[in-house]
Design goal:
41% helix, elongated, six-stranded parallel sheet, alpha/beta
């Protein structure tokens, strides 16, 4: 090419596609096959194409706003409220207002006329609003990956959820737990899927039983308490309970107290005796049968010899931890060990990526990583 400015039409001719396809491919919008998107970007880079941000905003009649879609349960969860505050704060730094979308969502075409881009947090394949939002024709950034079949987002900010649960399981094992359990979230979001898979893989790798009980994605403390009571009654050898849902940890503590379990002290010795009495380790289905995969969905009367084990474990220790830190874990008695996902910073990171894509500071399909930290507290025998 000559020294003149390279245009979209130049890229379209060189790539053998239409001008609109080039525009969609470079902006990460519309229905463009991945191979075509890659070819267009390669041609654009080879020709030295540089998008005119001002002109693009003028053509799109920029609204000066971006939309935020949260799970339907978000309004009662501390995590999502902090995330939203962070996203709003970061969007405002680029002069953009944040519009909170109703959980039921709106038609993609309608929302596209109101916002310049969208944030879709923890997109659930079963959420009927998500496909329309992803196909709205504006850049979309998801908080965690979308595992459904719809058009992919323009970018994503992800946490290593497998690593965070692995850190919790390693921690309780180091504190003496030999039979940990996970109150895992239901649904098929990337977070829920990763936690359930990691419970199985960690158990297989360590030759340790990881009892898995599924609870609602946003389980209340009462729901967590009921699940923990059933878990410990059916499988009294459990010596550590990791609860996934935000805010559910106090329910686990109440259940343990009601059953006479001492929080923060390992019950490993008692658990080992109970396991030996019941016939070994591996995964249990809750009815005295040993399975594979380190996972149990059982809700039966207990392991073989379970009655004696239950009596023997009353008063022994139980470690408690949470996959999500927040007010409920920090203010519990005792304070609960938890993974701090830094939700305010996470919201900022999601909004920042969307702002960067809108301003051509980041390429579409950019994936950024968000860090987490393990906060050890008295519920696992750690200093508060």
């Amino acid at each position: 090419m000559t020294s003149r400015t390279v245009t979209l039409l130049d890229v379209a001719r060189a790539a053998g596609v239409s001008k609109s396809t080039v525009s969609d491919a470079l902006q990460g919008s519309g229905r463009v096959a991945e191979a075509t998107r890659d070819r267009v970007r390669a041609v654009a880079e080879e020709l030295g194409y540089r998008p005119n941000s001002a002109a693009r905003r003028l053509r799109r009649a920029s609204t000066g706003a971006v939309g935020l879609h949260l799970p339907a349960t978000a309004t009662r969860l501390d995590y999502y409220m902090n995330l939203a505050f962070g996203a709003v704060e970061r969007a405002q730094e680029d002069g953009l207002d944040m519009v909170l979308l109703a959980p039921s969502g709106v038609a993609g075409g309608r929302i596209a006329s109101r916002v310049d881009g969208l944030l879709v947090i923890d997109p659930e394949p079963g959420d009927s609003a998500v496909p329309g939002l992803l196909d709205a024709g504006v850049p979309v950034v998801t908080g965690e990956r979308y595992l459904g079949p719809a058009t992919g987002p323009s970018g994503a900010v992800v946490c290593d959820n497998a690593a965070s649960l692995t850190a919790l399981l390693d921690h309780v094992a180091e504190r003496g737990a030999r039979h940990p359990a996970l109150l895992a979230p239901s649904g098929s979001s990337a977070w829920a899927t990763a936690l359930r898979a990691t419970a199985g893989s960690w158990g297989r790798a360590h030759g340790v039983t990881v009892t898995l009980r599924t609870v609602p994605f946003a389980a209340t403390p009462a729901e967590a308490e009921a699940a923990t009571r059933a878990l410990l009654a059916a499988d009294p050898a459990v010596d550590a309970v990791i609860c996934a849902p935000d805010g559910s940890a106090p329910g686990v503590l109440r259940a343990a107290a009601a059953l006479g379990r001492k929080i923060g002290a390992s019950g490993a010795s008692g658990a080992s005796s109970a396991c030996e009495a019941s016939g070994g380790n591996g995964a249990s289905d809750g009815n005295g049968r040993t399975g594979e995969g380190g996972r149990s969905e059982g809700g039966g009367p207990g392991r073989t010899g379970g009655t004696g084990a239950a009596v023997g474990l009353a008063g022994t220790g139980l470690l408690v931890a949470s996959c999500v830190d927040g007010t409920a874990t920090r203010g519990a008695e005792p304070p609960v060990t938890a993974v701090d996902l830094h939700p305010t910073a996470y919201g900022r990171a999601c909004a920042e990526l969307l702002c960067d894509i809108l301003a051509d500071r980041a390429a579409p399909d950019t994936v950024r990583r968000h860090s987490w930290s393990l906060e050890t507290r008295a519920s696992t025998g750690s200093p508060g």
